[in-house]
Amino acid sequence: MKKFKMMGIAGILSVALLTACSEDTATEADPVEETEVEDVEEVVEITEEEVLEFQQSWGEGIVHIGEVYSEGGDYEAAATEHIERFYGYDMSDVLFKPTLAREERFRGTFESALSYFVGGDISEDSGFAIAPWSDVRWENEGVLIEGNKAVSMGVYYFTPADGGEPVEVEYTFTFKKDNDGDLKIVLHSSHLPYSATQAITEEEVLEFQQSWGEGIVHIGEVYSEGGDYEAAATEHIERFYGYDIGNVLFKPTLAREERFRGTFESALSYFVGGDISEDSGFAIAPWTDVQWENEGVIIDGNKAVSMGVYYFTPADGGEPVEVEYTFSYTRNDDGDLKIVLHSSHLPYSN
């Protein structure tokens, strides 16, 4: 570090006094005091251009990790290099909230960040960077710079390598220069955009009912062809019922010994037979058609209820079987309709 000598204030005053004295007075001045003062280390300010270049390189790094993964290369090493280059774990604490993290929301260590990008010890991590992506496009709302620190906020768009629509993500980054003058991320917060719960439409309910009926017919077809009808029924329940998001109230038409089927397994037993003795497999009767006649559909935001009569046509050509129903639907986190209540009964007969 450069050092320079600086005349002390006492020395300056001494010289001034001596100059004001008469020439006859010959008094020798004290030596001028010299003081060593260290330079203040210059703070190199971050520029907006540096931030933009850094963002571009970060996005290219994410794409590169996915390319290495797709080519069967050492993608973990690529991700390690990415984190070392862009994040400041080696110089300070890092506040990192990834987009798709919930069980372990914050990734304050190098290892937990690596797990997020390529999968690791944290069970929820499937590897964000190995999705993979083909492009990352940034749209900054703004960049704030104060000395060797900068903050950017905006939206970036991740384009899937399979050609799907770009995924929109909101971000906040804080950057700081390290001792070598390189930018490092010390805060990274990413979130999916806020979405007000989309109201269910009657058209969606009608399409859902139609698909449910086609699913029941499909299970019977797979059964009749000697296929894996249990797998078909499993897929049907997973697609249409909300057992994975909460409680389901299910009263099947032909259930009495075990009237209510609040578990996935008991519903599967009803549709194709299983551990419950009264279950012969409603969906493997089989049926060739399901016709719906709604008495009405009531919608309240992301919930809907329908009531009416549906008619199941036997595959052997018999008369349609008339059944009364009530269904309640809700949206899951992906926006898909799910059944949370299903009550079916044969018509009253005196």
UniProtKB/TrEMBL annotation:
Alphabetized InterPro entries for the sequence: NTF2-like_dom_sf (IPR032710)
Stored SUPFAM superfamilies: NTF2-like
Regions annotated as coiled coil: none
PROSITE patterns: PROKAR_LIPOPROTEIN (PS51257)
Signal peptide feature range: 1-26
Keywords: Signal
Domain of life: Bacteria
Protein's name in the database: Phosphoribosyl-AMP cyclohydrolase
